[in-house]
Specification:
binds S-adenosylmethionine, alpha/beta, transferase, Alpha/beta knot, 9% strand, elongated
Length: 321
């Protein structure tokens, strides 16, 4: 059993706890209940120890006064905590809604900026055409992969500060490729590109066309906004060698390959694998980075993955020319 000195020491500690921060709320409440029971105990102890008619009235009055006093403190504390909780809640929801508005603004702003850049490219930027007239050379799986590459290419073009204007030519609406594009590309029908079933040969003046093909004898030196750069819509798992090169030559078109040999070296690897044939989205990343930076080393570094077995030549500088 505790002495009254111990009891009053506990009461002192309790007062300190009441002054402590809110985290101790549960602890405080438990202690305050303890305290009330201590007061009751105190009454028992003292009444058993020094019971008399006059001090009984005095003592019960004293205990009741203390009890009321602590009850008041507890109630005030509880009320304050409630108010603070409400304040915090209101502040959090205000911050939240401000964040959403800001986000919404910046999202809308970015979308408008992207649209503006793409539309500027439509009228004054370089043109990139994906020749989709060769799907008969591909398996179903390759066609699905082509649809995924179109999605990546479009995604890169949306992000860059200096986009190309993209044409999808020879693109038949009733085709597996179309279905795959819609299935794999969110909002495909809203893409800011020109699509047509016509062949690029019937749309662009042939002297403006540069067919990009890994089999060309000429390395691409620069990007001319007056030209149309054509990529063969092909995914070569069963390598169709020189398909686009032959097609371009047949129509007397200018051809060019990426300047990989000019800026990169073959890297020794266990499979002794070296390939200059890139996927269309990788070719596009090279073109797009070059168009933005005017640096072939930087562009090739971006688009030619290490799996192709090439590394930048030691003296190939990353400076912008
Ligand atoms: C996977 S490649 C297809 C290669 C195929 N054997 C061909 O005949 O074009 C897809 C397209 O990306 C472009 N491409 C790929 N690597 C290239 C390179 N090193 N230089 C220029 N164009 C390239 C070409 O337009 C090519 O048709």
């Amino acid at each position: 059993m505790m002495t009254s000195a111990e009891n009053s020491k506990d009461a002192g500690n309790l007062t300190k706890l009441y002054r402590s921060d809110e985290k101790n709320y549960v602890e405080e409440e438990e202690l305050s209940l303890d305290f009330l029971s201590l007061l009751e105990t105190e009454l028992d102890i003292d009444s058993s120890r020094c019971y008399s008619q006059e001090n009984e009235t005095f003592f019960s009055k004293n205990v009741l006064r203390k009890q009321r006093h602590w009850e008041k403190i507890l109630a005030a504390k509880k009320c304050k905590r409630k108010q603070e909780k409400e304040k915090r809640k209101a502040k959090a929801s205000e911050n939240n809604s401000q964040g959403t508005i800001k986000e919404r603004h910046s999202k809308r702003f970015l979308k408008e900026l992207t649209m503006e850049r793409l539309l500027t490219a439509k009228y004054s930027g370089p043109k990139l055409c994906i020749d989709l007239s060769m799907t008969e050379h591909m398996t179903k799986k390759e066609i699905s992969r082509l649809a995924a590459q179109i999605r990546r290419l479009y995604g890169s073009n949306r992000k860059t500060a200096k986009p190309f204007w993209v044409y999808l030519t020879g693109f038949l609406e009733n085709s597996l490729l179309y279905d795959e594009c819609v299935r794999m590309n969110d909002g495909f029908n809203n893409y800011l590109v020109d699509t047509t079933e016509s062949n690029f040969l019937d749309i662009f003046p042939l002297e403006q066309v540069v067919y990009l093909t890994p089999d060309s004898n000429s390395a691409l030196e620069d990007i001319d906004p007056q030209k149309v750069y054509v990529l063969g819509g092909l995914v070569d798992e069963s390598i169709q060698k020189k398909l686009t090169y032959r097609k371009a030559k047949e129509h007397g078109l200018q051809t060019a390959r990426l300047p990989i040999q000019e800026y990169m070296d073959k890297k020794v690897n266990s499979k002794n694998f070296h390939s200059e044939i890139l996927a269309i989205n990788q070719v596009f990343d090279v073109l797009s980075t070059y168009y933005r930076t005017k640096s072939w080393p930087e562009a090739l570094q971006t688009g030619v993955s290490s799996g192709k077995g090439y590394v930048l030549r030691d003296n190939a500088t990353m400076e912008t020319y």
